[in-house]
Structures are given as C-alpha cells and as structure tokens.
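ok trying this again, last paste got cut off
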Amino acid sequence: MVGIIDTTFRDAHQSLIATRLSTEDMIKIAEKMDSVGFYSMEVWGGATFDVAIRYLREDPWERLRSLRDLIKRTKLQMLLRGQNVVGYRHYPDDVVKKFVELSYKNGIDIFRVFDALNDVRNMKIAIRKAKEIGAEVQGAISYTTGRVFTLDYYLNLVDSLIALDVDYITIKDMAGLLTPPMAGMLVSEIKARYGVPVNVHTHSTSGMAVATYYESVKAGADYVDTAISPLAFGTAQPGIQIVHATLPQDFRPDLNMSLVYEIGDYLRTLLEEKYSKYLHREALVVNPDVLRHQIPGGMFSNLLNQLREMDAIDRLQEVLEEIPKVREDLGFPPLVTPTSQIVGTQAVLNVLFGRYKKITNETKNYVRGLYGKPPAPISEHVRKLAIGDEAPIDARPGDLLDPALDKCRDDLQKAGFLEKEEDVLTYCLFPQIAREFFELRKRGELKPVEEKRDLKGRLYRIYLGDEVYEVGVEEVH
C-alpha cells in the first residue's frame, strides 16, 4: 500500500487561499486528522511562517506546538528551503542549524529539504543537522522542464542527495508539470538504482496530478501527497477522496474515509464563510498554460491575491507572459520559493516599468551567485544590467555569511522583546516584520491584519521577504 502525506494544513491552503488558514481553524479538526491514518501531515514551513507573523499575527512556533499537542499518532513534517530556511534569502549556518534543532524540539518529525536551484551545497547543513538530531529527512529534487532538465540531470541530483544519507527522495513537482510517463520513468529509475523510498509531490494545476500519481504508484512510489477536498485540486494537491478511489486495490491505503468526508464538510463551510475572498477562480480550474509559464501553486495563489488587492488583475496576462522570459534570462531556475518570488517580482516590475528598468536587490543578489548556481548560464545582457562588471561568486553562498544568532539575541534583549529562544530565530529570519510582531505582542494587540484594496488609485505593493516595493502607476486616459 502507498503511504499518504496530507498537505491540508500547509501546501493546500498556501496554494489556494494565500496561506491564510488560521491555527484556530486547524485545531478544531486536528484530532480528527490524526485519526484518518495518514503516514504524515505537512503542517509547517513554506510560506506559513512568513504569513503567520505578517498577516495572521500568529506565532508560528505556537501553531506547531498546538498541533503537536493534539496530533499524537501521525508524524508531522515541514518544508525547509535549505539555506533559505523559511525565508527568501540565504541565512548563516548557525541560524540554519538552530532552526532545525528547535523545529524538531517543538514537534517536527520529518524535514523535507529542497533548494530552489537544485544546488545541493545549499541543502547540506540542514540535512546533516536533521540527521544528527534523529529526524527523518526527505531529500527533495525541484522538478521542472526545459532543455537542461533531462533524466540524467535529475538522477545526478539523486546521487548527491543519497550521498548525504537522506531517508528517502521526494520528487517535488511544484507546478504540476510532471507527466504520467515521466513520473513512471523517474520513479522506476530511482527505485532500480538506489532502492530508497520515493515520495511524489505534485499539484493539480495542469490537470495531470491524479494520473501522475497512478503511474507513480504503479512504478513503485512509496508515498504521494494529497489534500482533503475542497481544500484541494486547482493549484493545490489532488484530493485524497479521488486519489483513494482511483488507485488500484492492491495499492490503496487503509484510511478512515468516512472521517475524511466529515473533515471535507467542515472545510467546505469554512471556506464559504471565512475564506471566500481568497478563493479565485483562476486558482481553482485546470490551467494548461502552466505548461508554458510554469508558475507553482503557492506563487500563483499569492500573485492573484496581490494583483486583486492592487486592483491590477487586468495586468495578469502580461505578467504571465513575462515570467518565462525572465526565467530564461536568469538561467532557467525552477520556479519555487525563493526563485519564484524573485522571478515573479522582477516580471511584475518589468511589466509596470519596462524590462529591467527597475531591478530588485534580490535579482541582483541572484545574479551575483548569492543564491547558488543556476541550472544554465544567466543572460550576459541581464548580468551587465544587474551588477555591471562585478564578478559573480562561485563559492557556497553560506560560506560567505557571518554567524548571526548572538547578534539577533542581543538586539531582541536590548529592545525588550525576547520571551523565548524561538523568538531569536523569528527575528533572524524576518527582522522588520518580527519587530512589529513582537511590539504588538508586548502591547497585547495581536490581531489579523485587515487587508483592503484602495480602489481610488493604483499603489502596487510587492512583497519579497522583508523588502516591500511600493510603486505608484500613473494612468493615462
């Protein structure tokens, strides 16, 4: 039987409702989720950390502890962006190690570690620390398509991850690009060569996900990722209700499906009554254009939400057409955090102001090599525009960073904000947002941010980690 990894509390709502599912709404069904029979539940990491403090005004560490208290039988896992941790830039090794340590202490059993550029150098510290403390590690390859992404390319990545002693390999298909034949081929090759467990993760964006899982399981996949419908399909994972019914009897997992449908009813009411403003038709329907623009679920959901907030949804098609061009200019990075945000933000600025008339600091740092080595060379023209004659680095980016934990701790103590060790990590990762969060916490004024659109004019707010771009656009009549 295949094991099921449930993503309802992390990737599903990140992909469909801009990561806005609150801890309160998770807790109400946590014990029921624990009784379904999933192999594990992905409940943390990705954008959930950022959104929790930025918009929901919740402490993500408290969310993790609350879920751990209620979920006793099912393993909990998180998505960790390697040297990016849960942020949008590289962090020093001491921050990465401490984050892994405290995540494990607070309830994470399994770390799914990936790098946006598939640069395994950026995954080593996190993987080694997780193994050292006794956690399970999924070494993830970020799957995408293009002229450089051959079967040999992916198998070479698996070679490097196996050398780091990961417990199993995750094929992380963040945009729904993995076709059923390719899934079968890739899973078969990994199983034949290495004999390690294989987990397949995909999104329903292109409409291929259920068929992809079917072929993956027949080829020997040990785990697949699903969510509970209606918080499923579209740009999220396929719903377990359909996947369970579709799989051959010999592979079908033994789950409490009556409980799954009960949870689904709760989610349906919740979405209608509380989260409908985040549900956009574009994120719910099959979109074959993803095979061209390759935008992953979480990125698409947040892009739609941001453009709607700015009353600029009419520019969406221009942005979608610009994204593949920027991606090619930057050496075909897989579109997954943080490269998806870097490429997406640069594409938005290109549409608003002209191509590369304004270049973000993150794009410049990417071109400098501070995120790692791209799969293909960067356009020489764009390199010149971004960093002039400056030579890109060739070292592991983490080697260039000074330790930061002690300084972060000192800053928080001086400001009077330090309440627990986890606060130090939150501040290291998102200093500006964390300061605001801690100040509100100290005053007892934590409450969700009221998100409104200003329809009188167009003020574009583009978020990239701690950096916020506010740009006004003058309309011509």
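PB: full thing came through this time. The first strand starts at residue 3 and ends at 6.
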